[in-house]
Amino acid sequence: MGRLTPAVLFTCAGQRVDIVKAFARAGAKTVAIDLNPFAPALYHADHRVLAPPIGAPDYLPRLIEIVTEFGVGLIVPLTDLDMTLLAEHREELGAVLLLPEVEVVERANDKYSTHLFLEEHGIGSPTAWLPGKLQDELPFPVLVKPRRGFGSRNIFLARDRRELDFYLARAPVPSFVQALCAGEEFSIDVLCDLDGRCLNAIPRTMIESKGGESIKGMTVRDEELIELGRHVAETIGVKGPATIQCFRTEPGRNEITDVNLRFGGAFPLPLAAGGDFPSLALALARGERPGTRLGDFRDAVFMTRFFSEVCLVEAEDGTLVPFGG
After folding, report:
1. CATH number for the 7-97 domain, one of 3.40.50.300, 3.40.50.20, 1.10.10.60, 3.40.30.10?
2. Residues 48-74: pLDDT tens digits?
3. Gap between the Cα atoms of 24 and 275, Å rounded
4. pLDDT tier for residue 212 given thresholds of 50, 70 and 90
5. Residue ranges of domains in the chain
């Protein structure tokens, strides 16, 4: 039975109830860990564990204990925070890690390094500069973006040199400057196998977003974007999920702004459209080699999101447990 339905460990589970529940529906036993006892995803998993801080010396040993304790066959990180650590210690984890090699993780997590890599491989990417190498004449407005970050945190629009200097001087994290893209924005949700083959690429529009996360969108059958997603994923070396964000700046030209090595914030949309990423990921954990399914999804599926909740009470041992209907 364990061989057929490997248990899945979700690290930094946070609010990703959608992903935890989708893997459960695909037949997996789910184990969610998070530092925060109020992380909602903990209470939608079969098993929940409060984890030490990622930087703590016992974080990795605790993960290895959890893998053994719950018979975990697949590890799925849900944020960028522990990806490098997990990739560095892949062989010690005792389960399939849904991440590429550490150098790919590091390159993807550094958005300026991603830009350079895309340029070197002839893939469209908005012009970008490091703060110490800015041109005298810039195509204002421009964006000040963190080299590492997620959720649209610490991104600022500079309309002139005065604003640019202001934001660069006050940015709380290492940043770079990127040309502002015109045109329509798309995201492409991809899943690659452990050999780096793209199994599917599902483009979607960004009808509305909040805090960097899509809350309204629609799948689009655009052959150019499907091929772009496949090409970018396989060129970068994605193994597992990724979300590729781009702008169509002119007919036939799409510029990549981000490549995130995790299931996207709009995960329910490609899932509803037939992407079936959880079942494919579980097949990889079982050592199978699924065939590619490029283009196998339903066009024009819309998604609109809403808030939900889980209510908790304190149990006799001091832990939080779900309460009410």
Report:
1. 3.40.50.20
2. 999 999 999 999 999 999 999 999 999
3. 16
4. confident
5. 7-97, 127-179, 182-304
- Spell out the SS3 assignment of the chain: CCCCCCEEEEECCCCCHHHHHHHHHCCCCEEEEECCCCCHHHHHCCEEEECCCCCCCCHHHHHHHHHHHHCEEEEEECCCCCHHHHHHCHHHHCCEECCCCHHHHHHHHCHHHHHHHHHHCCCCCCCEECHHHCCCCCCCCEEEEECCCCCCCCCEEECCHHHHHHHHHHCCCCEEEEECCCCEEEEEEEEECCCCCEEEEEEEECCEEECCEEEEEEECCCHHHHHHHHHHHHHHCCCEEEEEEEEEEECCEEEEEEEECCCCCCCHHHHHCCCCHHHHHHHHHCCCCCCCCCCCCCCCCEEECCCCCCCEEECCCCCEEECCC
Residue 1 predicted with pLDDT over 50: no
Which tokens belong to 183?
A: 């045109």
Please measure the distance between the N-terminal and C-terminal CA atoms of the chain and give it in whole angstroms: 31
How far is residue 20's CA from residue 30's CA, in Å, rounded to a whole number? 7
User: Is there a common fold for 7-97 and 127-179?
Assistant: no
Average pLDDT, the chain: 95
What's the CATH number for 127-179?
3.30.1490
Sign of the dihedral through C-alpha 286, 287, 289, 295: positive
Q: How far apart are CA 73 and CA 288, in angstroms?
A: 13
Instruction: List the structure tokens of 129.
Output: 């500069």
Where does 182-304 sit in CATH, by number? 3.30.470.20
Question: Is residue 152 over pLDDT 90?
Answer: no
Per residue in 228-245, pLDDT (tens digit) is 999 999 999 999 999 999
Q: Where do we find the tokens 């974007």?
A: 225
